[in-house]
Amino acid sequence: MKKTLILWAALACACPGIAQKKHFSYQFYGFVRGDLFYNTRANQAPVDGNFYLYPLDHDYDSRGEDINATPNGSFYTFTTRLGIDMQGPKIGKAKTSAKVEVDFGGFSASTTMLRIRQAYVALDWERTRLLIGQTWHPLFGSVVPDVLNLSTGAPFQPFNREPQIAFTWRTGRFSLTASALWQLQYMSSGPEGASENYLKNSCVPELFLGADYRQERWLAGAGVHLISLKPRTSSTVTDASGNEQRFKVNERMTTFSCEAHLQYQAPSWRFAAKTLLASCLDHTALLGGYGISRIDPVTGEQEYTPMRHSTSWVNLTVGTRWKGHLYAGYTKNLGCSKALVSDEKYGMGLDIDQLCSFNLAFSYNLPHWQIGVEYVPTTAWYGDTNPANGKIINTHSVTNHRILGLVMYYF
Asked: Architecture of 26-410 per CATH?
């Protein structure tokens, strides 16, 4: 990390000279962020516990004590962020720009590492924009919760950045966006665990089509998303004699999701909401995945059925310098359209029937500072999977209480 900071310092010193190039301009930005948190039990929380999602189920030991009912907490600063926006010379009538944004939230076996958050180039005409590179997934969208937790509303709000080619067309108050996306840091689940291979072998990128309408303080929109995965390219089958045989298979799982969002922005308060019918969106930090609906007895080739979830959130913030944040999210497992023929399922949170969370936060905000505290109770209802429809039955609840302290310095 020391070498990385030296590199950025050298780049910052060099930029005044570089910026003298004709028609180029550069603007650095970022923040230093510290998160102090405490949980009453173990949780599904990637990024070393900073990216909080939901409480884990009971895990009883030989004496009937819940191993996961163990408090935990820590303090981290590795989500500190550095970025640069660049404006370049025109190409014909198109304005050119680029962005590079990094933080220290990449993980090796022993320490945090510098990672790319966003890296793209863009061409802007009067009514259209072409973006090529890595940036926010369109399901993350233009309406996002205002909370203190790093998870930014997940697992009810999609959270993902992917390499993509995105085209936006604007006319009056309307804008249309079409995107083709490929996976890299946020990956779908499957037989190999989380991997980009399922989309890579599919040869079909994720596809998104959405529309937004803006009028003064209002913003409303909707979108539809398609994902097509190839979970396996070969299978291994044990015959009656106990010998293993391998077969090339042609498997595919294709499904759609849709979303709608709304926001009202007043001078001293803001209301926002989003709802999704989510299908196989576990790579966007939502509950979801897929199961097996058929297995060929000879070759072992499998057919799949996606698990569907209804997920929604609402968010209200009041104030400017002293700000109150209220957020509520709810997810319901709707099951699948075909019966399951195997206990094997791929995804995140597929043994959860319902998930409910509330965020209550207060923050003090200055032009370059934010200091706040947040309380987040989250309850998950775990149970057994009904193979006839994929729904969760025989449920019991598990609750975690999370307290977060945050300090940020923006520049």
From this structure: Beta Barrel (2.40)
